[in-house]
Every structure is written in structure tokens, then in C-alpha cells.
Design brief:
Order of helices and strands: HHHHHHHHHHHHHHHHHH
Radius of gyration: 29 Å
Helix content: over 70%
Number of helices: 18
Distance between the termini: 54 Å
CATH topology of the largest domain: MetI-like fold
CATH class of the largest domain: Mainly Alpha
Structural class: mainly alpha
Number of strands: 0
Shape: globular
CATH architecture of the largest domain: Orthogonal Bundle
Strand content: under 5%
Number of domains: 2
Largest sheet: none
CATH superfamily of the largest domain: MetI-like
């Protein structure tokens, strides 16, 4: 005899409707504990926020609360009903899974709309956004906005040169298969770098004149340019067969990875001017950024190289390539593809770490925000929120660029 599969979930219709009243209760009664707990936790969060709004909130808040509550209860009930039919067969189980995915997205979106809408409304209605507008230029370029530097503002076009050069190189790299422009991609990059450095260099040496977000970007770019060759050198050195090179590389990497970045900044800020004289404080900070980040880049390089099959090296040596040729022509070009995600994450971290240099007197973005907030006591939240958004925008753009760079690799 064969069991009738429709007899097992006979109590399902009786239990699943409970989730329409209490989200997650029907799932728990049917034995889907994890799913039920998720809905119960979401219901607790939503009702804690929605209940005060429904009792006496504004029309905007009431609408958001109704959207979130309706989506939550409908999603929980429909999902519980679909789960109750899961045992009827593979087709019903597949349909139940699709229902859960669909309504989990809808419920999550409703919760985000509720919380995000309230936060946006509260943020927009803050009274001191006018102060942010009046001091926004100071957050971007620091004291460089003053009349003392009015005749030097044209140097800010250096950022445009860097951006256009990098953008042109990126576009050419994406068109390399169709048009064969890959070999010329370095031309706009090098040209933009030369023009940008020539324009911006006088703003930081011999005296730091620029500040705010512009100084944060300059420090981040210089730190990245210094960290990449250091990371490649010591990353390859760590897996070298020569004990001396391997020992030096391990010592450098472990030293800087074991120290807090703020300690490295203080040490270089005191030591470098003592050895090289006054006027080198800016380059001391750049050296601290480069050496500190280079240790982490070296570990990324080491991991990227060791992730490749050993057969790559053996095949290259069998073809008569030397160890250096094998590393430069075979190993590193392949390893770089695996390094892109962690490298971008490290560079985003470097951009955010520039906020620590304000402790030695450089007025970058975080320092400009702190100065402005201390001067305008009534606009503290608005100032720091603006600073956070500026950090987020540039970090997110960098992550988008990284995903775009990874896309052709995934296709191949």
C-alpha cells in the first residue's frame, strides 16, 4: 500500500492562517521554526515603529506604517500558506520557495521604506542645513577657499585631469577586444597623472595649503601609489626561496600589521622631520600611509600568487623562462585578477584611514568637519552627516569601479 500524500498536511490550512494575524506564528506551528522566528522578529521591529505612528503620527508616517504592516502580514500569511502545501510534491515545494523569495523581498523593501522614509523626513527637517551649505566649500577644500588663495584656485583643475585620464584609460581598456586599444590605454592615464600632479603639487609642498575632501583624495592617491610597489615587492619577497629576502619581507609585513595606524602616523610625523628637516611633515604622513597599507597589499599579493596552481610555474620553467620572467609574464598577470576585490577593499580602507591624519594637524575631510562642528555648535549632526555622506559616495564609487573591472574577467 502507498500512503496518501494529501493526508499529511491536513491541519495545514488550520494553522497557516495564524500568520495573517501574528506574522511567523503559522510557520512555527507548521514546524518551520527559523522562518517563523524571522517573521516574528521583523513584526516586533515593524510594530514598535509603526504603532506610535498609527496612533498619532503625521499623514506621511501613517502611510508608511500602513504599507509596512500590510506587506508584513500579507507576506507572512501567504508564505505560511505556501509552506503548508510544500509536502504535496516537488512542484508545490518549488512554488513555495519562489513565494518565500518574492515576499521576503517585498517585506524587506517595506521595512526599508518605513525606516528610511522616517529617517529621511527627520533629516530633511533639521533646522541647520543652511550652515552646512555655507561651510560646504570648507569641507571640500579647507582653507584653500579663503581669499589668500584666490589666485591659486585654478589648480583644482588637476582633479579633473586625473579623473579624465583615468576615465579615458578605463574606457579604452573596456574596448580593447573590439578596437585593439589596450596597448594605448596607458597614454591618457599617464598624461592625466602628469597634468594633475603638476597642477596639484604646489598645493601640498612645501606647505600644505589645501584641505578637506581634496586633501583626503590626494593623500589616498599618493598612499595607493606608494603601497602598490611596496606590496608587490614584499609580497613576492615573502614567497621567495632566498631566506634573506623572505626574512626581510616577513619582518616588514608583520611589523606594520602589528601596529595601530595612529602609532605609525605619530612615529613618522616625529621621525621624518627630525631627519630631513622642517617642511616634510606632509611627506611623513604619505610615507606612513604607503608603508602601512603596503604591508596589507603584500599579503594580498602573496595570497593571490599562492592561489594559482603550481602547474603554472612548472609549465613556464619547462618552456625555458627564468624565475623573474615566470613571475612577471605568467604568474602576476593571472594573480592580479584574483587580487582586485581585496585590493579595492584595502584602498577603500586607506581612503577612510586618511581621517586619522587630522591628529597631526592636517585638515582633511574629517578634520574640516570637526573644526566646522566645533565652531557651529547647533549644526553638529548636519555637519557630521555630510562628512559621512562624502566618504560614502567616494568609497561606493570605488567599489562600483572594482565590480566593473571584475566583470570582463568573469565573462572570460
Amino acid at each position: 500500500m502507498t500512503a496518501n500524500p494529501t493526508a499529511k498536511p491536513s491541519s495545514a490550512p488550520t494553522l497557516s492562517w495564524l500568520s495573517y494575524l501574528v506574522p511567523g506564528l503559522g510557520q512555527v506551528a507548521l514546524g518551520h521554526t527559523l522562518l517563523g522566528v524571522q517573521f516574528l522578529a521583523t513584526a516586533l521591529l515593524v510594530w514598535v515603529i509603526a504603532w506610535p505612528l498609527l496612533r498619532g503620527g503625521t499623514l506621511f508616517g501613517i502611510v508608511l506604517a500602513l504599507i509596512a504592516v500590510t506587506a508584513l502580514h500579507l507576506g507572512a500569511g501567504i508564505t505560511a500558506t505556501a509552506d503548508a502545501r510544500r509536502r504535496l510534491g516537488a512542484e508545490q515545494a518549488f512554488a513555495a520557495q519562489n513565494t518565500y523569495r518574492r515576499w521576503s523581498v517585498i517585506v524587506a523593501l517595506a521595512v526599508v521604506v518605513l525606516i528610511g522614509g522616517l529617517l529621511v523626513r527627520w533629516t530633511v527637517t533639521l533646522p541647520n542645513w543652511g550652515e552646512v551649505q555655507r561651510n560646504f566649500l570648507f569641507l571640500l577644500i579647507g582653507r584653500f577657499r579663503s581669499a589668500d588663495y584666490a589666485d591659486q584656485l585654478w589648480r583644482l583643475w588637476g582633479f579633473a585631469a586625473l579623473g579624465l585620464g583615468g576615465g579615458a584609460a578605463f574606457v579604452m581598456s573596456q574596448l580593447r577586444v573590439r578596437l585593439g586599444w589596450a596597448r594605448f590605454g596607458w597614454v591618457p592615464l599617464a598624461l592625466g597623472a602628469v597634468i594633475g600632479i603638476a597642477l596639484l603639487f604646489p598645493t601640498v609642498s612645501p606647505q600644505v595649503q589645501i584641505g578637506g575632501l581634496a586633501l583626503s583624495l590626494i593623500l589616498a592617491v599618493l598612499g595607493i601609489l606608494g603601497a602598490i610597489p611596496l606590496g608587490l615587492l614584499f609580497g613576492v619577497g615573502r614567497i621567495n626561496t632566498l631566506p634573506v629576502l623572505r626574512g626581510i619581507s616577513v619582518g616588514y609585513i608583520e611589523l606594520f600589521r602589528s601596529l595601530p595606524f595612529i602609532t605609525v602616523i605619530f612615529w613618522f610625523f616625529i621621525f621624518v622631520p627630525y631627519v630631513l628637516g622642517e617642511g616634510t611633515q606632509f611627506w611623513a604622513v604619505v610615507a606612513a600611509l604607503s608603508l602601512f597599507t603596503g604591508a596589507y597589499v603584500a599579503e594580498i599579493v602573496r595570497a593571490g600568487i599562492q592561489a594559482l596552481p603550481t602547474g603554472q610555474t612548472e609549465a613556464a620553467r619547462a618552456l625555458g623562462l627564468s624565475g623573474t620572467q615566470t613571475m612577471l609574464r605568467v604568474i602576476l598577470p593571472q594573480a592580479v585578477r584574483n587580487m582586485i576585490p581585496p585590493l579595492v577593499g584595502q584602498f577603500i580602507s586607506l581612503f577612510k584611514d586618511t581621517s586619522l591624519v587630522s591628529i597631526v594637524g592636517l585638515i582633511e575631510l574629517a578634520g574640516a568637519g570637526r573644526i566646522t562642528a566645533n565652531r557651529l555648535v547647533t549644526a553638529t549632526f548636519e555637519i557630521y552627516l555630510t562628512v559621512a555622506l562624502l566618504y560614502f559616495v567616494f568609497a561606493y564609487l570605488l567599489s562600483l569601479l572594482a565590480r566593473r573591472l571584475e566583470a570582463p574577467v568573469a565573462v572570460r
